[in-house]
Amino acid sequence: MACVLGPFCWADTDIQECCRSRYLPVEYVNSAVRKLVRRSKGTFRLLSAFRLGDTGFAFAANCGRYLKVLEIPTSEVNDKIVEKFAESLANLTVLDISYCLKITHVGIEAVGKNCKSLIQLKRNMPPPELERFSSILKLDDREAMVVADTMPLLQDLQLGFGCFGDFGLYAILAENKCHSSKEET
Fold first, then answer.
1. Which fold has domain 7-125+137-175?
2. CA 40 to chain centre
3. Of 13, 36, 52, 173, which residue is the least packed, with the fewest Cβ within 10 Å?
4. Structural element, H or E, at residue 167
5. Boundaries of every domain in the chain
6. Distance (Å, rounded) from C-alpha 13 to C-alpha 70?
7. Per DSSP, what are the bridge partners of residue 111?
8. Considering the entire predicted model, what is its pTM?
9. Which PANTHER family does the protein's record reference (predicted)?
10. Starting from the edge strand earliest in sequence, which strands make up the sheet with 12-14, in order?
11. Could you give the CA distance from residue 53 to residue 157 in angstroms, rounded to a whole number?
12. Distances (CA, A) of 158 to 80, 119, 144
């Protein structure tokens, strides 16, 4: 029983599948995250939640000094909250903000400037609507440029359906200093 009551039992908090299968409202997800983070006494290393809101993100970031993996796909978190709490997430190595439509290049830049150990970023977006195919698709390289300029250690990058062009993608490839290679002796 002491194991379950201790904070280290709650170091890896993964409620994504539960939230996804029940399609829980943001308020319920925020409440669950707050309770689980409290139970971990701030020692959680992994947080995975589907449809997390601003208050849940803020609470987790405030308590997340040991947080290494943050997976919050399809969350309602916005740039303002990410900017405000990115400094608290300095130890992040893995971030999944796929389908987070309220996070733009501004929030990604805040993460990049504060999370210097980031080695994996998932930023998959929904496919463009059919109407957008008929009109001219507007390219925006700002997200790609922010990734290139602020995340040089990335080893795994997923950017599905982003609206960036060749210029932004080339910048990422040119700026990434972490190429795996064997040292010759």
1. 3.80.10
2. 21
3. 173
4. helix 166-175
5. 7-125+137-175
6. 10
7. none
8. 0.86
9. F-BOX DOMAIN CONTAINING PROTEIN, EXPRESSED, F-BOX DOMAIN-CONTAINING PROTEIN
10. 12-14, 46-48, 69-71, 94-96, 120-122, 156-158
11. 24
12. 23, 12, 11
β-strand pairing of 120-122 with 94-96: parallel
Q: Which two tokens stand for residue 121?
A: 């970023």
Nearest to 61 by CA among 102, 115, 24: 115
DSSP assignment of 49-93: -SS--HHHHHHHHHT-TT--EEE-TT----HHHHHHHGGGGTT--
Burial 13-33 (b: 16+ CB within 10 A, else e): bebbeebeeeebebeebbbbb
**Structure tokens given for 134:** 């008929």
Residue with tokens 């994504």: 16
DSSP 142-166: HHHHHHHHH-TT-SEEE-TT----H
How far from 161 is each of 36, 146, 155, 176, CA to CA, in Å?
A: 33, 17, 19, 21
Instruction: Give residue 34's identity as a one-letter amino acid code.
Output: R
